[in-house]
Structures are given as structure tokens and as C-alpha cells.
UniProtKB/TrEMBL annotation:
Membrane-spanning intervals of the chain: none
GO molecular function annotations of the record: delta(3,5)-delta(2,4)-dienoyl-CoA isomerase activity
Species name: Vannella robusta
Pathway recorded for this protein: Lipid metabolism; fatty acid beta-oxidation
Protein name: Enoyl-CoA hydratase
Gene Ontology annotations of biological process type: fatty acid beta-oxidation
Record has Lyase as a keyword: no
PANTHER family (alphabetical): DELTA(3,5)-DELTA(2,4)-DIENOYL-COA ISOMERASE, MITOCHONDRIAL, ENOYL-COA HYDRATASE
Length: 274
């Protein structure tokens, strides 16, 4: 699959199976405008469809991760000349598209790591709660800012964050719009680890991504599918799902290759993927 032409992101595909998704509008604080929202979908469609990518790493250039929603773009949504019903209908369609795009990091079958530095505001929380793993710098901070600017967060934060940090902290963040710092994010399980600066953060994130990318693609995909399924189903249903999955995919070439490589003390060469 060809890397899509983008203006709000850059995608760098490494030889080790890691694709780095970089938010690259540092001068604009990586704010999220209409174009940003529309490009997220193609970004993750590429990650999912590319046979050269096993894992994605999301990070940002500049002094912070993202300042969140571009309020000018919000004005363009609300301030058209259409009658009220048409405006509301268009807004609903746009929100549904944006929700789908922001949920793509979760719904694709490949793991996604977010590496956050500086402030992560509003839509940034929507985006990183959709990722599988979050890592941060010690100066990172996180705010569900929508509440403070007269919006109910609507792109996934309120549906996902309580599963990550628990209901109490999730509701505090949502009701106050206050920032939580990196240490509180770490102690609540919102991020997995905290690093001194962005260089150390990216070094650790790249090492984790490389470790994951070296494993069997079809096993990684099956593992993410199973964990996503288990979040929305009973243990019994989830056990049934993974039994059916493994009965279909367990006899893959990758299983034989993994065992053989382990016995021979060499790096496995995997070929199977969905």
C-alpha cells in the first residue's frame, strides 16, 4: 500500500515493521482542524492494509503533543448559511465520521503506541485513549478541555477513559477539565511509563515498538482482536471467541517458525498475517 499524501501527519515506515505516525504542525501546536479529522481515517487505513507494518507509533513534533480542537474549524461547522435542520444533520454526519476516524487506532488489528510529550488537550485525549499503550514525558499533562469550552467530549474520551483509569479519576477529569500531570497519569494507569524528555520517550517507545514488530503479525492481530472482544463481552463469550480463533489459525506456519527459531536460538522470520 502506498503511503497516503497528508498535510497534518507524516508516516515513516521503518524496515523493522514499525510505522511512525507523526503530527507535524508544530507551529500550529498540532491543533485539530477539519483536515486533521479527515486525515486520521486514511492514516490508520494505511497502517491496517500495509503488509510492511506490524505496529504503529504515534508522536508529535513541537513543544507539545496537541492543543486539541481548532476552535476556528468548530466555528465553520456551526456558522453556515443553511437552515437549522440542515446544519444539525450535517453536524451529525460530520461527528459520526470523526468518531469513526478517532476510533480507528482501536479497531485496526495492529497495536498502536502513543508517545506523549507536553500538553495533551481535548481531542488529544480522544485520540490516545483509542491507542493500545500510552507512554509520556515527565512534563506531559492531560486535560478533557471540552467541558471548559462549552462542549461535551464526543469523540471517544468519555466512552473509553473510565476503562483505563477507573470511574473516579475519569469523572474528575471530565467534570473539572483540570490537567493531571504525568505522575498522576502513571499512578492511575493512564500511561505505562514516564521518561525525562522526548528523546528518552521516543527511544523507549521505538524499542517497545521494535520488540512488538518482531513477533508474529497474525498472533499480534489475534491478540488485539481477542482483547478488544473481551472488553465488550463476558468471559465465557470471550473464551469461545479465542477458541474459535485458535482452531482456525493455530496451525499457522508462524507457530512452527517461532518454535523452531527458539530451539535454534535465532530470530524467527514470520510470514503469516490477516
Amino acid at each position: 500500500a502506498a503511503v497516503p499524501q497528508l498535510s497534518r501527519f507524516r508516516i515513516d515506515v521503518k524496515e523493522n515493521g514499525v510505522a511512525e505516525i507523526v503530527m507535524n504542525r508544530a507551529k500550529k501546536l498540532n491543533v485539530m482542524d477539519d483536515v486533521f479529522f479527515e486525515e486520521i481515517g486514511p492514516v490508520f487505513d494505511f497502517i491496517e492494509s500495509s503488509p510492511d507494518v506490524n505496529v504503529a507509533l504515534l508522536w508529535a513534533e513541537g513543544r507539545l503533543f496537541t492543543a486539541g480542537l481548532d476552535l476556528k474549524s468548530m466555528g465553520s461547522v456551526m456558522g453556515s448559511d443553511d437552515d437549522e435542520l440542515t446544519q444539525r444533520t450535517k453536524l451529525l454526519a460530520k461527528l459520526k465520521l470523526w468518531q469513526t476516524n478517532f476510533n480507528r487506532a482501536r479497531t485496526i488489528t495492529k497495536p498502536v503506541i502513543a508517545a506523549i510529550h507536553g500538553k495533551c488537550i481535548g481531542g488529544g485525549i480522544d485520540m490516545i485513549t483509542s491507542c493500545d499503550v500510552r507512554l509520556a514525558t515527565k512534563d506531559a499533562s492531560f486535560s478533557i478541555k471540552e467541558t471548559e469550552i462549552g462542549l461535551v467530549a464526543d469523540l471517544g474520551t468519555l466512552q473509553r477513559i473510565h476503562r483505563i483509569v477507573g470511574s473516579g479519576i475519569a469523572r474528575e477529569m471530565a467534570f473539572t477539565a483540570d490537567f493531571i500531570d504525568a505522575q498522576r497519569a502513571l499512578s492511575s494507569g493512564f500511561v505505562n511509563a514516564v521518561y525525562d524528555d522526548q528523546d528518552a520517550l521516543l527511544a523507549a517507545a521505538r524499542a517497545m515498538a521494535a520488540r512488538i514488530a518482531g513477533l508474529s503479525p497474525i498472533v499480534l492481530q489475534g491478540t488485539k482482536i481477542a482483547m478488544n472482544f473481551a472488553e465488550d463481552h463476558t468471559v465465557e463469550d470471550s473464551l469461545n471467541q479465542i477458541a474459535l480463533w485458535n482452531s482456525a489459525f493455530l496451525k499457522s506456519d508462524d507457530l512452527v517458525e517461532a518454535v523452531t527459531a527458539f530451539m535454534q536460538k535465532r530470530t524467527p522470520k514470520f510470514r503469516n498475517r490477516l
